[in-house]
Design goal:
8 strands, 378 residues, alpha/beta, eight-stranded mixed sheet, Transferase, Pyrimidine Nucleoside Phosphorylase, Chain A, domain 3, Pyrimidine Nucleoside Phosphorylase, Chain A, domain 2
Length: 378
């Protein structure tokens, strides 16, 4: 009777007062359950005012990261973000390349040290070495150019059509999937205003590949590779390797490094390995380099030019080795024929022979453009 008199119950507006209990618990260093974390993220994403939503996303994502999120909290937040675009990783189809290994490649971005784009030329070199790579790409947030920006400036057209990208991948071994086209609703709500890794950085970019891959290489610009791996295991049932590197234990990049230390943890055959810290320069015998040897370009065009120069064999040896060790990691995951040092030697051969540059030109032409943008730097 009372309900008839006052009408149906209205859902409360999504605002700070309606998730204050969650906020205060995070601020006190307390953990949330999966459902609480998912509800908290959903309420924040539903805020209409963009400035308020961005502020509350910062509190949630960075506050939770600062206290160290649990796996349950991280998956709750990630699932709420995926829900905006009805993107369910478990429902992704398997890749169509029967009898071939496909390596997925993604990274958190938000590097503590700005570098030239490494993941893009590394994926191209691995593809030139015969490895099928499905790569996530995104626009820049905290750097001059993200991998998507770089590829577009190189004349590569990134299609939102999954099947079209797989056709390109069938022809040249490399398929590039632009994150913003896969989850446009989340992208609009997120805003891209973050400059350091947060809870979503633990796994979210890797889950946006629209096909399931056999192996996964994920880079995170944060020291907790083990937590990232445990979150990824909730979604990816194949082999994987999670990597992070640092020259000083303060600033991190989301790739294998050749300056300082690289943290590595993996899963093979459902068995988790132990986290290891490696000096890749010593492992591969590359010699000693400094950060000044791998300076980034000042603009997006500069970043694209550096990729062409690297693939053409005209970059500093340090940058060539940095690209090669990341390509070697993809080669190592994509075949059982090579040890990591052997894969590194193969990646260097690809760079020295010009095969990587040829693969980039193929990618541009196959994607529907020409190699004119590449030729201006040759």
């Amino acid at each position: 009777m009372l309900a008839d008199l006052i009408g149906p119950r209205q859902a409360p507006p999504a605002g700070p007062e309606h998730f204050g209990a969650y906020l205060h618990r995070i601020n006190a260093g307390q953990d949330l359950t999966y459902e609480e974390a998912r509800s908290y993220m959903s309420l924040v994403l539903a805020i209409d005012d963009g400035r308020q939503r961005s502020a509350q996303l910062g509190v949630l994502l960075n506050g939770m990261m600062a206290k160290r999120p649990t796996v349950e909290e991280a998956t709750g937040v990630i699932d709420a973000a995926l829900e905006l675009d009805a993107h369910v990783p478990a429902f992704r189809p398997a890749h169509p390349f029967t009898g071939e290994r496909v390596v997925g490649m993604a990274g958190s971005g938000k590097k503590g040290i700005k570098t030239p784009n490494i993941s893009t030329p590394a994926a191209i070199v691995a593809a030139a070495a015969g490895i099928k790579v499905a790569k996530c790409a995104s626009a820049a947030t905290s750097s001059a150019a993200g991998s998507a920006d770089t590829l577009k400036n190189l004349g590569v057209r990134l299609s939102g059509d999954r099947d079209r990208t797989l056709e390109v991948m069938a022809a040249c071994n490399l398929g590039v999937f632009e994150i913003e086209q896969i989850v446009p609703q989340f992208d609009a709500a997120y805003g891209g205003l973050f400059f350091a890794p947060h809870v979503l950085s633990l796994a979210f970019p890797a889950l946006l590949l629209p096909v399931r891959t056999d192996h996964l290489l994920y880079g995170i610009a944060h020291p907790d590779v083990t937590l990232s791996m445990e979150v990824l295991r909730r979604y990816h049932d194949g082999d994987m390797l999670v990597v992070s590197s640092t020259p000083d234990n303060v600033r991190y990049i989301d790739e294998v490094g050749i300056i300082g230390e690289t943290a590595v943890v993996g899963v093979r055959g459902l068995e988790r390995g132990n986290m290891r810290r490696l000096n890749m320069a010593e492992v591969l015998g590359t010699g000693s380099y400094s950060l000044s040897d791998i300076r980034p370009g000042a603009t997006a065009i500069d970043q694209a030019r550096i990729v062409v120069e690297t693939l053409a064999g005209r970059s500093h040896r340090a940058l060539a080795d940095l690209v090669a060790v990341n390509a070697a990691t993809l080669i190592f995951l994509g075949t059982s024929q090579h040890t990591l040092p052997e894969a590194f030697a193969l990646a260097r051969e690809v760079l020295d022979s010009g095969a990587g540059l040829a693969k980039l030109r193929d990618l541009a032409r196959l994607s529907g453009d020409t190699d004119e943008a590449i030729r201006r730097w040759l």
